[in-house]
């Protein structure tokens, strides 16, 4: 005569626990692929993966904040220059991203050399350009330049890049 609560509930509990572990493992695997989508991503321990995910989310929050600031800068530069289109000077921001730098330049469309001069500054600061995009808005050109440090351990001195671009855009 089987005792009360013998084999059936134990098997059910074991199966539920196995399903829970498999589900958790699947979710952690998906999280790992979102954080590091390369096919040869390292194997993460659960706690390390959660720490990495937290750091990644914080980095994304900083990027969102930086993009909001850039949007405000672009909107304010549009408002300020609405009446004086011909006299608008170049506006720029420099944002440090780990071992990379993002430079946003807004210049008059007749200033054809600002981009090449800015690229020269980045190259001289050991930050070769990885990606450049631009868009036109009326008589303005908006450039976004991403540079990666030659040596990730050393990084890029973004304050020095900022100062050199400031001197560059101040003109003669």
From TrEMBL:
Its main location: nucleus. Residues 50-77 form a coiled coil. SMART domains: HLH. It is found in: Nucleus. Residues 8-60 form the BHLH domain. InterPro entries: bHLH_dom (IPR011598), HLH_DNA-bd_sf (IPR036638), MASH1/Ascl1a-like (IPR015660). It holds the Pfam family HLH. Keywords: Coiled coil, Nucleus, Transcription, Transcription regulation. It comes from the Eukaryota. This is BHLH domain-containing protein. It comes from Vitis vinifera (Grape).
